[in-house]
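Handout for the seminar on molecular recognition.
Each group receives one record of this type.
Step one: identify the two inputs.
Step two: read the structure output and locate the region that could contact benzoyl coenzyme A.
Step three: write two sentences on what you found, then compare them with the reference statements printed after the record.
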Amino acid sequence: MTTAPGGTNADYSEKIPNNVDLREDRRLQRALESWQPNFLSWWQEMGPALPTRDVYLRTAVNVGREGWAHFGHVAMRDYRWGIFLAERDPGRLIGFGQHMGEPAWQQVPGEYRSELRRLIVIQGDTEPASVEQQRNLGATAPSLYDLRNLFQVNVEEGRHLWAMVYLLHAYFGRDGREEAEDLLRRNSGSADSPRILGAFNEETPDWLSFFMFTYFTDRDGKYQLGTLKESAFDPLSRTCEFMLKEEAHHMMVGTTGVDRVVERTAQLMAENDTADGAEVAARGAIPLEMIQKYLNFHYSVSLDLFGGETSTNVANYYTAGLKGRWLEGRRKDDHKLTDDGVLVDALVDAGDRKQSIGQAEVSALTGLNTDLRREYTADCQSGVNRWNKILAEAGLPQRLRLPHVAFNRKVGAFAGIETSPEGELLSAAEWAAKSGQWLPTDVDKTHVRSLMQPVHERGKIAAWIAPPRNGINGKPFDYEYVHLA
Ligand code: BYC
């Protein structure tokens, strides 16, 4: 396939498939081609560990509206990781901040170079981190359908790394190339060179964690990419726009994954007329209390990914035009926010040298991490509502809920305190005594892991999870999504 006018089609005759006319820039092409073997050795060493012959994967072939993906069985090592930017709008204007109304930038302005590089590096760092975290999950997949989805997520996170590496190589010269090397040097959970953000150094040791991760942590990705899509730096905006299309599938994996775990548990509870977690566990499913603890953990570590409740970094990013708000174009204000205030969650003085959780008014600009976090929380609530509907339909009175914003936080206003999931302040001793009721304990993790027996037979599924309602790309559930080696 060759590059179409307008540059929407991917050119697969190239060593690095792309829609950015890479062959026109030999220096850049050579630089990326010299990074490519390092990427492939990283994939070999840190990517999916389960040996497979081939996997039914989608590959991006076009960024346009008229369909963009090709589906087929491919050997993962031959997957064509490429560079795709959404179509360029030549008339695009900056939509917020002090440069509002000026043409979007096609090059990096000198004064914003280091901030832009930092944002791109942080974004880029999360992508390979998640592949590393999920490396061993293939060995315990509950079905071939789930195994295929895991690998799809993995190859696309690999492609998202390519997306950020392209920006670093194309626009940041030598230091960009060094940062690109470092993205392969840092590793999730490594003592010497960990990944940058906390959640990406946590383990994803089982499939409940994987579904919670793809629901809660990938959803942070959706919101962060949504703000970078607004960026005045047009190549960043266009690359994030296309990444968001791929991200939708990752959300689906998380949402329906948790649906199916809840459904199976609810089914067992209803059939056996029991609310006893021990009995549910003995019958080979995951008790609701454990699902709630995993939810509490993944939601709270994902809240940390939004940074502090107040942040001068985010105020500067916004004013400079580097990072906008979620759905910036739909906000009904001046898109500069210099005179506005906002209430953010905060620890406030409650007299008698005591503190309580309340709200504090800050400038709207420094409150922008809170603005994004609130959009995210509302979105997360929709998943919880969905899971509660499954419980209600099974005739059960139990409900899942999101913990309080201050619960289990390590970043921001609540980093130094402990609270219950309801947001009640606790002493260190109270927390130590009670946290096992709210976060997964070793006993919970051992139970969940004990259920993780692989089901690699076509059309079969593990007993702790319900089958999906639909297969992939119109294929049935019992399709041969993966051929193991
Ligand atoms: N862990 O001013 P503050 C995804 C640091 S996920 C460790 O409050 P800011 C994906 C911070 O760097 C999306 N450190 O924060 C999902 C700063 O350090 P310096 C990834 C943290 O800058 C699943 C200091 O604390 N993309 O795509 O306003 C699978 C003060 O911070 C953390 C992005 O995040 C933390 N959690 O906001 C695959 C977008 N939080 O400067 C992929 C790019 C803060 O004092 N990143 N710190 O040394 C950003 O927009 C912002 O940098 C952050 C932080 C939202 C991360």
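Reference statements: Residues 234-271 form the longest helix (38 residues). Confidence is low (pLDDT under 50) at residues 1-6.
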